[in-house]
Amino acid sequence: MSESLARDAAVDDAPAGTARRRTTKVAVVGAGAVGSTMAYAALMRGAARTVALYDINKAKVEAEALDLGHGIQFMPMAEVVGSDDIAVCADADVVMVTAGAKQKPGQTRIDLAENTIALVRSMLPSLVEVAPDAVFVMVTNPVDIVTYAALKVSGLPPARLFGSGTVLDSSRLRYLVAHHTGVAVQNVHAYIAGEHGDTEFPLWTSASIGGVPLLEWRGSRSAGPLTPEVRESMTREVIDSAYRIIEGKGATNYAVALAGSRIIEAVLNDERRVLPVSSLLEDYHGIGDVCLSVPTVVGRGGAQRLLEVPLSDGELASLRHSADALRTVARRFGL
């Protein structure tokens, strides 16, 4: 698509002689499995008026944009552009960074850190230059370390650059709880906190089902109570699910794309929705100088406010353990 069409995509049609207002634009960096699916999810949900795909692979990114564009008539009205020129991200309201090394079967997210941090260091300054007012959301794994590195490189305030964190992990947890209890997943309120990785853990103390504290859920004829053994099994399944998916199909893309589109909507619509995104902690329950996930109010200003949810002694210990593990990795890479 021409640059003029791309610019036109950033404004609404308006009658002659009237002011044209700027509309929303999302830039997705990386046209791989996650990035292209995230662009698709954002378009299907009508999250933004313009979706721009950027990737250094010219043939790939142009093909993905063309394929998406051919389906525009079946989606909420929008424009999609794709290019290997970073200028395609210009003036974006939200930049979703999905580019990075692909996680292979058996690899942990931390194993991906070195190459991805190098990519962030080389790419992020140019992204900030073309989209200086954007909210940046890091999706690339290991997302907590990548987010911390991106903050150091970009100089952006922590509210305007954060990671997708455990939004997807929390969705996985709610799915398992809903399946066990036989209630709609929309009525399950529970969060995974900490690292988006092996040290993450559920916030059972503050979880609820339809207003009933989860730890007080007594079960039913068709489903037993949420015993410690059941909860431990759910926790393990949440942690291991990405490895299972990667082993079976090579990548996770659908659910993470939907989680990403939900973050986009929370920002662009200024929803002030509570989401467990990964942002810089500063004296959060005494923990600081690390990026990890806790329930956070997300709106047009980005990660606007971290909620100091009540934690049991065990949950606080788990949060500190997760923070210590992430700091150790960050120091290993000179952060």
UniProtKB/TrEMBL annotation:
<keyword id="KW-0963">Cytoplasm</keyword>
<feature type="domain" description="Lactate/malate dehydrogenase C-terminal">
    <location>
        <begin position="166"/>
        <end position="328"/>
    </location>
</feature>
<comment type="similarity">
    <text>Belongs to the LDH/MDH superfamily. LDH family.</text>
</comment>
<keyword id="KW-0520">NAD</keyword>
<dbReference type="InterPro" id="IPR015955">
    <property type="entry name" value="Lactate_DH/Glyco_Ohase_4_C"/>
</dbReference>
<feature type="binding site">
    <location>
        <position position="60"/>
    </location>
    <ligand>
        <name>NAD(+)</name>
    </ligand>
</feature>
<feature type="binding site">
    <location>
        <begin position="139"/>
        <end position="141"/>
    </location>
    <ligand>
        <name>NAD(+)</name>
    </ligand>
</feature>
<feature type="binding site">
    <location>
        <position position="34"/>
    </location>
    <ligand>
        <name>NAD(+)</name>
    </ligand>
</feature>
<feature type="modified residue" description="Phosphotyrosine">
    <location>
        <position position="243"/>
    </location>
</feature>
<comment type="pathway">
    <text>Fermentation; pyruvate fermentation to lactate; (S)-lactate from pyruvate: step 1/1.</text>
</comment>
<feature type="domain" description="Lactate/malate dehydrogenase N-terminal">
    <location>
        <begin position="24"/>
        <end position="163"/>
    </location>
</feature>
<dbReference type="InterPro" id="IPR001236">
    <property type="entry name" value="Lactate/malate_DH_N"/>
</dbReference>
<feature type="binding site">
    <location>
        <begin position="141"/>
        <end position="144"/>
    </location>
    <ligand>
        <name>substrate</name>
    </ligand>
</feature>
<comment type="subunit">
    <text>Homotetramer.</text>
</comment>
<keyword id="KW-0597">Phosphoprotein</keyword>
<feature type="binding site">
    <location>
        <begin position="30"/>
        <end position="35"/>
    </location>
    <ligand>
        <name>NAD(+)</name>
    </ligand>
</feature>
<dbReference type="GO" id="GO:0004459">
    <property type="term" value="F:L-lactate dehydrogenase (NAD+) activity"/>
</dbReference>
<feature type="binding site">
    <location>
        <begin position="169"/>
        <end position="172"/>
    </location>
    <ligand>
        <name>substrate</name>
    </ligand>
</feature>
<feature type="binding site">
    <location>
        <position position="174"/>
    </location>
    <ligand>
        <name>beta-D-fructose 1,6-bisphosphate</name>
    </ligand>
</feature>
<dbReference type="GO" id="GO:0006089">
    <property type="term" value="P:lactate metabolic process"/>
</dbReference>
<dbReference type="InterPro" id="IPR011304">
    <property type="entry name" value="L-lactate_DH"/>
</dbReference>
<feature type="binding site">
    <location>
        <position position="55"/>
    </location>
    <ligand>
        <name>NAD(+)</name>
    </ligand>
</feature>
<feature type="binding site">
    <location>
        <begin position="100"/>
        <end position="101"/>
    </location>
    <ligand>
        <name>NAD(+)</name>
    </ligand>
</feature>
<comment type="function">
    <text>Catalyzes the conversion of lactate to pyruvate.</text>
</comment>
<feature type="binding site">
    <location>
        <position position="109"/>
    </location>
    <ligand>
        <name>substrate</name>
    </ligand>
</feature>
<dbReference type="InterPro" id="IPR018177">
    <property type="entry name" value="L-lactate_DH_AS"/>
</dbReference>
<feature type="active site" description="Proton acceptor">
    <location>
        <position position="196"/>
    </location>
</feature>
<dbReference type="GO" id="GO:0006096">
    <property type="term" value="P:glycolytic process"/>
</dbReference>
<dbReference type="InterPro" id="IPR001557">
    <property type="entry name" value="L-lactate/malate_DH"/>
</dbReference>
<dbReference type="InterPro" id="IPR036291">
    <property type="entry name" value="NAD(P)-bd_dom_sf"/>
</dbReference>
<feature type="binding site">
    <location>
        <position position="122"/>
    </location>
    <ligand>
        <name>NAD(+)</name>
    </ligand>
</feature>
<dbReference type="InterPro" id="IPR022383">
    <property type="entry name" value="Lactate/malate_DH_C"/>
</dbReference>
<feature type="binding site">
    <location>
        <position position="252"/>
    </location>
    <ligand>
        <name>substrate</name>
    </ligand>
</feature>
<dbReference type="GO" id="GO:0005737">
    <property type="term" value="C:cytoplasm"/>
</dbReference>
<keyword id="KW-0560">Oxidoreductase</keyword>
<keyword id="KW-0021">Allosteric enzyme</keyword>
<protein>
    <recommendedName>
        <fullName>L-lactate dehydrogenase</fullName>
        <ecNumber>1.1.1.27</ecNumber>
    </recommendedName>
</protein>
<feature type="binding site">
    <location>
        <position position="164"/>
    </location>
    <ligand>
        <name>NAD(+)</name>
    </ligand>
</feature>
<dbReference type="Pfam" id="PF02866">
    <property type="entry name" value="Ldh_1_C"/>
</dbReference>
<feature type="binding site">
    <location>
        <position position="189"/>
    </location>
    <ligand>
        <name>beta-D-fructose 1,6-bisphosphate</name>
    </ligand>
</feature>
<feature type="binding site">
    <location>
        <position position="103"/>
    </location>
    <ligand>
        <name>substrate</name>
    </ligand>
</feature>
<dbReference type="Pfam" id="PF00056">
    <property type="entry name" value="Ldh_1_N"/>
</dbReference>
